[in-house]
Each structure stands twice: as structure tokens, then as C-alpha cells.
Amino acid sequence: MALSPDLLEILICPACKAKVELNADATGLKCVGCRRVYPVRDDIPVMLIDEAVVAD
Fold first, then answer.
1. Which residue in 26, 28, 32, 27 sits closest to 12, CA to CA?
2. Third-level CATH fold of 5-54
3. How far apart are CA 29 and CA 51, in angstroms?
4. Phi and psi dihedrals of 3, rounded to 5?
5. SS3 33
6. What pLDDT score does 25 carry?
7. What is the pLDDT of residue 26?
8. 10 membership: H or E segment, kind and range
9. What is the pTM of this model?
10. CA-to-CA distance for 44 and 36, rounded, in angstroms?
11. For 12-32, how does the pLDDT look when each residue is reduced to its tens digit (9 = 90+)?
């Protein structure tokens, strides 16, 4: 995964404005607030609410 740590510091969830963290398998960014998981495609985070899935 080539996501910059600096980029991860500034990204927030567009739905609830909480911090996002890289998930364990590095395929998405999980919101610590609302638990939405935003996909990462070709090392680019897709921060669209419609593209996110809510994790259990």
C-alpha cells in the first residue's frame, strides 16, 4: 500500500467527519465514528459515501 502517512492524517469521513484508519487488509479506510469503510483502488482512497459499506 502506497498511501502516504501524511495523507492519512488529513483524511476524514465525509459522512460524520471522524478520523479514518487503514483497515487490517489494507483494502479500505475505516471510519472510527460511523464504521463506514471506504475502498482504496489503485492506491487512491475513494471517499464517496455511496461507495462506502458499513462494517459490523
1. 32
2. N-terminal domain of TfIIb (2.20.25)
3. 12
4. -75, 130
5. coil
6. 87
7. 85
8. helix 5-10
9. 0.90
10. 17
11. 999 999 999 999 888 999 999
